[in-house]
Amino acid sequence: MPWANSVVEAELPRWTGRSLVWHYARLVPPSGGTALDEDFLNGLLAAAPAALDQLVALPLERVYLACTSAAFMFPGQARNVALGAHVPVVTAFDAVLAALDRYRAGSIVLVTPYPTKVSDAEADMFGECGITVTGQATLNSSDGYAGIGPEEIRAVTRRAGSRAIKEAQAIVLSCTGWPTFGLEMVLMREFGVEAFSSNGAIATHAIQASAGNS
Q: Which of 75, 87, 211, 212 has a CA 20 to 30 Å removed from the CA of 156?
């Protein structure tokens, strides 16, 4: 996970309880930065082999690359990380796609904290994967995601527009770095459609894969 991400460690065990044990390795970009831009994301992926080496002695079932944006911004590099790993590697974006497949959701509203350019790139990637983005909304922020509160996330979701939400089969809260635990049910009650986040998708994928269902 990105070295400045303080949310993944807090959220994944809350979803999975005692059914799984999580180990963590931090991806430190050469720049030493934390703001989400292309240099930062490239740096995270460049740091992945060393992070995998930290885990090689552990009896792992799989590794999750807990940065959604790195996977869809640089899919080729993310695939190369997986090719060099000693166990299967699943990216956060892979986990989101798997969740959409489970829900049989072919259309989504995309909600992110990302800079607009990054959010647009994710919408394009969903399109390439056969997922229709009926609407999107972003905070257009490059840093400080851990401090985003639930009301701010609900507010930015509303900005996607009622028509777009009505046409969607799911709301995707993309990004592992903002706190989303518990928001899925809140959004489902408010908008009447399935909702899930990157961290929730990772946790669900891990549970089902460990049970042999993925």
A: 75
Q: In this structure, are 105 and 169 located in the same domain?
A: yes
Are 187 and 104 found together in one domain?
yes
Range of 178's domain? 94-197
Q: Where are the beta strands (DSSP E) in 11-165?
A: 63-65, 89-91, 107-112, 132-138
Model pLDDT for residues 64-111, shown as the tens digit of each residue: 999 999 999 999 999 999 887 889 999 999 999 999 999 999 999 999
The two tokens of residue 72 are: 């869809």
Regarding whether 61 and 16 lie in a shared domain, the answer is yes
Residue 3 lies in a domain: no
Please check whether residues 191 and 112 belong to one and the same domain. yes
What are the residues facing 132 on neighbouring strands?
A: 107
**Pair 24, 81 in one domain:** yes
Give dist(CA 107, CA 14) in Å, integer.
Answer: 28
Per-residue pLDDT reduced to its tens digit, 137-194: 999 999 999 999 999 999 999 999 999 999 999 999 999 999 999 999 999 999 999 9
Strands of 170-173's sheet, edge to edge? 132-138, 107-112, 170-173, 194-197
pLDDT reading at 63 higher than 90: yes
**21-58-43 Cα angle (round to 5):** 90
